[in-house]
Amino acid sequence: MDKVFKALADDTRRRLLDRLHENNGQTLGELCERIAMTRQSVTQHLAVLESANLISTVRRGREKLHYLNPVPLHEIQERWIDKFERPRLAALGAVKRRAEEAMTDKPRFVYVTYIASTPEKVWEALTDADLTAAYWGHRNVSDWRPGSRWEHVRTDGSGIADVVGRVVESEPPTRLVTTWAAPGQEGQEDRHSRVTFEVRAHEDIVRLTVTHEELADEGEHADVASGWPAVLSNLKSLLETGRTLPQEPWLVPSR
């Protein structure tokens, strides 16, 4: 949290966050357009914001896109604002939702979490059917080879898959890309969304970035914006403590 407050104390860094709030998913060149300083200086400010986990980055070809990460701001809200400023919560929630919006040809939702684990264990948690059943309530079933089919199967013994798709990329233990579709829309590729898991090690921790893009509408965006934090919090708890959270986090009321 000290890094967050240090990052927010600088006017230039606040302006960069404002730019991402206005239009999430910008390149370095786009962020430099209205800031009177060198690219090197802007890069240094972005590095401070990323170190504080206030932004995350995703590479698309040769470009690196920058995204506002609302998690530290939400933690500030919970610790210092919720208790004293409840009438403003609706407005703050609207800011968070807008901060996660992006252009339709860019990733629509990006979530970053840090886990005390190894890339190999995180990869196993993402691809092992029994482990996904433990923290997700569904078994993710596939051989996880590029081109293979995968299914998100209920754990109630019914064998019903609520999500199906294809494995687009599989580079254990650092990168997994899959398409997502309702079973009835499996043959309609224009209705598929895409999820990318990126696993990066840093000493004794792992940075896990989940990018969910090509969503159909704002209803789907709202679903993934509430669903991914719950699932990934359960995954984090399982890997760090050996136990999932005592209650299913996706059942916690939003208000």
Describe this structure in words.
With 255 residues, the chain is of the alpha+beta class. Helix content is 39%, strand content 25%. It is built from 9 helices and 9 strands. The strands form 2 sheets. It has a 7-stranded antiparallel β-sheet with strand order 3-9-8-7-6-5-4. Strand 8 and strand 9 (205-213) form a beta hairpin. It is globular.
Number of helices: 9
The residue fraction in helices comes out at 25-40%
Q: How many individual domains?
A: 3
In the CATH hierarchy, the architecture of the largest domain is 2-Layer Sandwich
The tally of strands reads 9
Low-confidence stretches: none
Largest sheet: 7 strands, antiparallel
InterPro entries: ArsR-like_HTH, ASHA1/2-like_C, HTH_ArsR_DNA-bd_dom, START-like_dom_sf, WH-like_DNA-bd_sf, WH_DNA-bd_sf
GO molecular function: DNA-binding transcription factor activity
Pfam family, one: AHSA1
Organism: Streptomyces argyrophylli
Which SSEs are present, and which pair or pack?
Layout (H helix, E strand, L loop, with lengths): L1 H7 L2 H12 L5 H5 L6 H13 L3 E6 L2 E6 L2 H11 L7 H11 L9 E7 L3 H9 L1 H8 L1 E4 L7 E6 L6 E11 L3 E6 L12 E10 L2 E9 L4 H24 L14
Antiparallel strand pairs: 1-2, 3-9, 4-5, 5-6, 6-7, 7-8, 8-9
Question: Notable features of this structure?
Answer:
seven-stranded antiparallel sheet, 3 domains, Alpha-D-Glucose-1,6-Bisphosphate, Chain A, domain 4, 255 residues, 9 helices, single chain, alpha+beta, two-stranded antiparallel ribbon, Arc Repressor Mutant, subunit A
